Amino acid sequence: MSHATLLPDRALIRLSGEDVRGFLQGLVTQDMASVAPDAPQWAGLLTPQGKALFDFILWDGGDGSILLDGEAEQRDALLRRLTLYRLRRAITIQAVDGGVHWSREPGQGVPDPRLADLGWRWIGAAAGEAAPDWRAHRLSLGVTEGAGELGQDKTLWLECNAQELNGVSFTKGCYVGQENTARMHYRAKVNRRLVVAPLGEPGDRTRATYPDLGLMIELRRAEALGDALMPGWLAEALAEG
Predict the structure, then answer these.
(1) Would I find Signal among this entry's keywords (predicted)?
(2) What does 52-117 look like in DSSP terms, one character per residue?
(3) pTM score > 0.70 for this model?
(4) What number of other Cβ atoms are within 10 A of residue 226's Cβ?
């Protein structure tokens, strides 16, 4: 396993106190009952209309606490949003030290909850060299993340391929944005998909461009994905739809 494992663009938030899981259960897209020490879960915090605001990986932090592994650039904004929802609950929400690490090969950590092919992930000290090929590997599998790629208040959560990448529960009950998300699911109305494609001329549907990788992220109609990368998980979802 390479010693260069740190994901420096990730940062941690810890939630602790009274019924933290119950608090998050009413906010995020994932069922908090599924978050276990060896089973982190990918989730989103949405607008009431079901559009992505933040995405993160939920970890069991021990002692009843939960760790959110999310974008470093969005940590302060996510802290403010969670604090807004906290109201008078006896819950502490704070940025904490620590680093998120990744490896393509097993040996430490647990499989990425979105897609096993993404590799292995763990939380440790914020030390060591940055993993050099995480972004290229992730995009080669068609997996998007973060405000720059998903778009804040721009993309419906199911258009972010949340169902296919294990980022939503349809049995957990109410959460912010649940009504529209559930309606899309049960009516099979995911008309657009966030995809990775070869770099071309950016347009109004472009979310992000990566000239160094020759790739871009676009929101395209499901029946007109064009030259988008077609990983197995996406091809299977489209065939079923």
Answers:
(1) no
(2) EEEEEEEEEEETTEEEEEEESTTHHHHHHHHHHHHTT-SEEEEEE--EEEEESSSSSSEE-SS-GG
(3) yes
(4) 11
Is-contact 190 241, C-beta < 8 A?
yes
The domain defined by 138-240 folds into Elongation Factor Tu (Ef-tu); domain 3 (2.40.30)
Neighbours of 168 (CB within 10 A): 26
Amino acid at 72: A
Q: Around 214, how many Cα atoms within 13 Å sit in the side-chain half-sphere?
A: 4
Q: What is the pLDDT along the chain (241 residues), one digit of tens a residue?
A: 458 999 999 999 999 999 999 999 999 999 999 999 999 999 999 999 999 999 999 999 999 999 999 999 999 999 999 999 999 899 999 999 999 999 999 989 999 999 999 999 999 999 999 999 999 999 999 999 999 999 999 999 999 999 999 999 999 999 999 999 999 999 888 999 999 999 999 999 999 999 999 999 999 999 999 999 999 999 999 988 6
Show the CA angle centred on residue 19, arms to residues 14 and 21, nearest 5°.
65
Q: What is the Cα–Cα distance from 104 to 134, expressed in whole angstroms?
A: 9
CATH number of 10-132: 1.10.275.10, 3.40.50.150, 3.30.1360.120, 3.30.1320.10? 3.30.1360.120
Q: What are φ and ψ of residue 83, in 5° steps?
A: -65, -35
At 118, which amino acid appears? L
| CB-based contact 115:135 (threshold 8 Å) | no
